[in-house]
Amino acid sequence: MSTMRPDLRSPQHSAGFGLVAALFLMIVVTVIIVTMAHLSATQHGISSLAIQQARAYQAARAGLEWGIARALEDGACPAGSLNLSGSLSEYSVAVTCTSSAYMENTSTVAIYRLTATAQNGTPGSRSDYAYRQLTAVVER
After folding, report:
1. Whole-model pTM?
2. What are the pLDDT digits (tens) for 99-131?
3. 89-106 pLDDT, tens per residue?
4. What is the DSSP string of the chain?
5. Of 55, 67, 62, which is closest to residue 131 (Cα–Cα)?
6. 131-139 and 92-104 as β-strands: parallel, antiparallel, unpaired?
């Protein structure tokens, strides 16, 4: 009596290999898609923060220019807050000033140190919070 050994290369034994390969390919493609979606969301967040930082800089610069103009025109140390419009309307801008004077020959020279601070909310109040502070020294 001869015993028949099953042939390992028969279609019955290799049918499961295609299923394993298909599942592996599906898992790899799914991981790639999830990773790309995560990277896209991260990139969007970084772009949003960069835009908010640029706006905060422009808002602080507007406050600083306002303070410089007041100091040069009025000869007084300006301080206060600004209400901006347009895309900068969400930013609060505070301008502070300190002054000192000294004598040069026969005239008095005034030095104004201006600081403009711009922010859109308070730290932790929003995910795209931005803060910028600029300082300038003006002589009159």
Report:
1. 0.70
2. 999 888 889 899 999 999 999 989 889 888 999
3. 999 999 999 999 988 888
4. -PPPPPPTTSHHHHHHHHHHHHHHHHHHHHHHHHHHHHHHHHHHHHHHHHHHHHHHHHHHHHHHHHHHHHHHHHSS---EEEE--GGGTT-EEEEEEEEEEEEETTEEEEEEEEEEEEESS-TTSSTT--EEEEEEEEE-
5. 55
6. unpaired
